[in-house]
Amino acid sequence: MKDTLAAVRSVPVAVSLAALVAGAAGCGQSRHHEDLVLFEQRCAACHAIAPGKLSPVPAAANLWNAHPSEADIRRAVEDGAPGMPAHLVKHDDLEHIVDFVLQETRR
Q1: At what angle do helices 91-104 and 70-79 cross, to 10 degrees?
Q2: pLDDT at residue number 26
Q3: What is the dihedral angle through the alpha carbons of 39, 40, 41, 47, rounded to the nearest 10 degrees?
Q4: Cβ-contact 50, 64 below 8 angstroms
Q5: Digit-coded pLDDT (tens) for 19-46
Q6: Distance (Å, rounded) from C-alpha 76 to C-alpha 72?
Q7: Would the pTM count as exceeding 0.85?
């Protein structure tokens, strides 16, 4: 009985440990999902990226409609644009935003 009780008590610890390990490993999230989250954190407050959607900021382009090139995206993010600060994302995040926008606006 004592061994059974100890085993039952250890189950929550094992489950908690497994959840912690899975969380640290990213729970198998795809690169696309991670890029979507980055876009939502850094761009979506101003820009929509879907057909027929209005951007939250009327002056900001719906990126689906704008269909920007890689150079357009880099230039806007690195140099800024009217109402958009320069260097909004940098380094690897810039690469992920460029890839994400190109993938989401591909036709």
Answers
A1: 140
A2: 53
A3: 80
A4: yes
A5: 434 444 455 689 999 999 999 999 999 9
A6: 6
A7: no
In a domain, 41, yes or no: yes
The answer to whether residue 33 is domain-embedded is yes
What mean pLDDT, rounded, does the chain reach? 82
Task: Please indicate, yes or no, if residue 15 is contained in any of the structural domains.
Answer: no
Q: DSSP string spanning 14-46?
A: HHHHHHHHHHHTGGG--HHHHHHHHHHHHTTTT
As a whole number of angstroms, the longest Cα–Cα distance in the chain is 72
* Domain boundaries, position 64: 29-104
Residue 5 has pLDDT above 80, yes or no: no
Give the whole-angstrom CA distance, residue 65 versus residue 48: 9
Region 52-78: what's the mean pLDDT? 96
CATH label of the domain that carries residue 37:
1.10.760.10
- Residues in Cβ contact with 3 at an 8 Å cutoff, skipping those fewer than 6 apart: none
In a domain, 98, yes or no: yes
